[in-house]
Amino acid sequence: MKKSLIFVSLTLFLLQFQTLAQEAFQPMKDTAAFRREVAMQAKVTQSIESDFVQEKNMSVLSEKIITKGHFYFKKENMLRWEYLDPFNYVIILNKDKVTIKDDNKVSRYDMNANKMFRSINDMMINSVQGNVLDSKDYTIKLMENQHYFLVEMTPVVKETKAFLKTINLYFSRTSYTVSRVKMTEVSGDYTSIEFVNQKKNESIPDSKFTVH
Amino acid sequence: MKAFLIQSSLFINLVVLAGGCAIRNYGLSDFKNTQGVNPGSLNPVLPDTFSTVLFKAGVDVYGRYFSGLLFIKAIDSTSSYRLIMTTETGLQLFDLELMPDRMIIHACMEKMNRKAVMKIIESDFRLLLEKYEAHKAQALLTDKARLHTVYRFRDGKKLTYFFIENKTGYLDRIERASPWYKKVTVLPEPDENAKPNTIRFMHHDARLEIKLKLLKIS
Fold it and tell me: What CATH superfamily is the domain A27-199?
């Protein structure tokens, strides 16, 4: 009986170890093919719509802060990023205008007049679209495992480096779309955003990118 | 010389006006002395035993508005609190530790890390989190309509008033004042379960209002 228990425990441990080994990322073998495929997907993608689940992990807290929402992206440069649970909050990036609606409070900004908004805009749109491989603001490391292609981005710009250590983009191996984004801060705390129920190239009215 | 006289006269008028707003005309009158007041915390904005609380925070400052998530964690062993604010998208704005005698800045975005900003945050959250014992009040007052019992605490020139509604026994508001003028009002708006659904910090000496909306408490 005791031997059986040891055997079962050992098997479970080895299975777990094997799973972990499969999850581990290795340097990407065919980076040229990956770049080509991502560029092609970015080219043919006219719109993306998806739910998202955001998890904020802080070392000082034992629990994660989980928020949920929905986003719409439409070419060129139109993004609606909307939190629905546990609060209502909308960010709309439309060409060079930023609109933020917090409950009933609406704030409008000109992206060109605000370097920070420009940087956030680039980061959000490029992350959603996967159009980041040629960015001069980050050094790029390409990795893969059996589920994902991983683009690990390390900022080179001083202002971004001050608060952000890395941005990891996890691309689905089948659709070449971003399934998950992980932003790690200098402290090691991180925010992870998982995209679910993604829809590509469906019609999205322009009215989604305005606040009434 | 004439200009100097006008300036002096204006200054004297201002002093008289400020004097007119001093404590004695705060709209309160002596009620009874503090003898016989039962010991106990006067600060029921947040429950005495909370471990963590998550707020949606909105800040209106001189016509500009920004918002985020504010997480407060009680650290039992040291009577301290950890205050962490992030943007809605998860980016950390500050990580502070409020201790009984000082505040440690663990991390803070460069643009926010100004002495005046940190001082306001420290002062506002001490009002919200520190325990005020009823029997330690310096004076017990009432308003003209006798709707509230008002506990006044003095710490040097700093005065703190707790307005307790006579009818319900609930905290109506907290006010922080100098001897000359009102500085901040903290307005809790509890829900039907007495949870602090919304808390507003209204600053009277600056165009600043902080609004906290409760998302989660444990």
Answer: Lipoprotein localisation LolA/LolB/LppX (2.50.20.10)
